[in-house]
Write a structure and sequence with these properties.
By secondary structure, this protein is an alpha/beta fold. The chain has a single domain, classed as Thiamin diphosphate (ThDP)-binding fold, Pyr/PP domains (Rossmann fold, 3-Layer(aba) Sandwich). The chain contains 13 helices and 8 strands.
Length: 306
């Protein structure tokens, strides 16, 4: 595992595989995460990206930002197309190529979940990364299954009526070698997570919380703080499951203690998409967060003692 100090050294040594000049929104954490994911994976990487913001922000060939092969793919086919790439390389005897699916929550939690589950069930040796900005941000901020409860979007003008789908736990239930969550706004977390994933054979899944300033309606200057508050409130828990054993990451561990967490309302109030929340709704969200933290803490503690 690297530290922030070591990360600065890596930045000057490792090649840039996501170049300047992308057409992303200013300060987009998804671009930050992809940049550091590619630094971890290295030059021998192929990216498959189903319909999402990334298809736009990489730019237009021949001036696109990725310095590795990057395949734009149909919405439902991110994992299946990656499986085809893996099979192609394996048939040529090339087993040192990292194949990465880079997808949004729409193409993962909703439209692409069947292809993802199928590729995992076939034991495809690839990394599937879902950068979760909690909505269909590229097409006008519509709700997805990953959108939190009570969120106001263009398709839920009075607020969404159910909690977000826990895609990490759904994938973890497939009992694959590696599942992890990380923060797009934390390059150290991103780099370490992808370095771990590439060292493991078989299907790997990484769930990346990606605060979206225009979609969540907050000042882009607050992006890093927004990611940190998601963890400090317990709204997003950093954990990993390696060969079936769940472990809470150090940066989330202290916030499993309810007394040390910040109120979830402090995290939500900084986002315009939650501007219509009532006290009862905030209390409901707090209860949801508390129960999830208790459940994951209990499982991690139990498995640590096996």
């Amino acid at each position: 595992m690297i530290t922030t100090k070591e990360l600065l050294k890596i930045e000057s040594v490792k090649p840039e595989l996501f170049l300047a000049g992308s057409s992303s929104c200013a300060g987009c954490p998804s671009v930050l995460a992809l940049r550091w994911a590619l630094k971890a994976l290295g030059k021998k990487t192929v990216v498959v990206s189903p319909a999402c913001c990334a298809n736009v922000y990489i730019g237009l060939w021949p001036k696109a930002s990725p310095a590795v092969p990057y395949i734009n793919m149909a919405f439902a086919a991110g994992a299946s197309a990656a499986a085809g790439v893996v099979a192609g390389y394996e048939s040529l005897g090339k087993k040192d190529i990292n194949v990465l699916t880079w997808a949004g929550d729409g193409g993962t939690v909703d439209i692409g979940i069947q292809a993802l589950s199928g590729a995992i069930e076939r034991n495809t040796n690839f990394i599937y990364a879902c950068y979760d900005n909690e909505g269909y941000m590229n097409t006008g901020t519509q709700r997805s299954s990953s959108t939190p409860k009570y969120t106001v979007t263009t398709t839920t003008p009075t607020g969404k009526h159910m909690h977000k789908k826990d895609i990490s736990q759904i994938v973890a239930a497939h009992d694959i070698p590696y599942v992890a969550t990380c923060l797009a706004t934390d390059p150290v977390d991103v780099y370490n997570t992808f370095m771990e994933a590439k060292a493991i054979h078989g299907p790997k899944f990484i769930h990346i919380l990606t605060p979206c300033a225009p979609g969540w309606r907050f000042d882009v200057a607050n992006s890093i703080d927004m990611g940190a508050m998601a963890v400090k409130s317990g709204f997003f828990i950093l954990w990993k499951q390696v060969n079936g054993r769940l472990e809470i990451k150090k940066k989330s561990l202290r916030y499993m203690d309810k007394q040390k967490r910040i109120p979830v309302g402090d995290y939500l109030k900084g986002q315009g998409r939650f501007s219509k929340l009532t006290k009862e709704q905030i209390d409901d969200m707090q209860n949801w967060v508390d129960k999830r933290c208790e459940k994951i803490s209990a499982r991690a503690e139990y498995e640590a003692n096996l």
